[in-house]
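During the reporting period the student researcher (J.K.) took over the structure-prediction task from the postdoctoral fellow and processed the backlog of single-chain submissions. One of the processed entries is reproduced below for the supervisory committee.
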Amino acid sequence: MDNTELEKSKAYITVEIIEYIPNSVVIKTILKKSTGIITVMSVDCGEGLTEKTSPFDTFAQVIDGKAEIVISGESTLLLTGQSIVIPAHAPNLIKPNGRFKMIMTVIKSGYE
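J.K. obtained the following structure tokens:
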């Protein structure tokens, strides 16, 4: 995971912030503060992520491809441009459906 934030006051094409790397999951930090973090990830075909639970709400948006999001056992397929809010404390799993890129925004407030 690249914890270096993007340069501020510079325009970006969001989907180009991160590239696909064969057989890999790549995560890059866009912005990191004590109140939250915004990351972008790319997931290559055949790669997956493990189920996790966060103490904070997370906004997940697919910016390329498609991914299945399973929240508390309920599955939702997100296509490019679609998003979902993953509630705090809900077990969740992101399953690739081919390769995809996604922005994750975690808001660290209201649950102190």
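The committee noted the following: The domain at 14-107 is CATH 2.60.120.10 (Jelly Rolls).
J.K. will present the remaining backlog at the next meeting.
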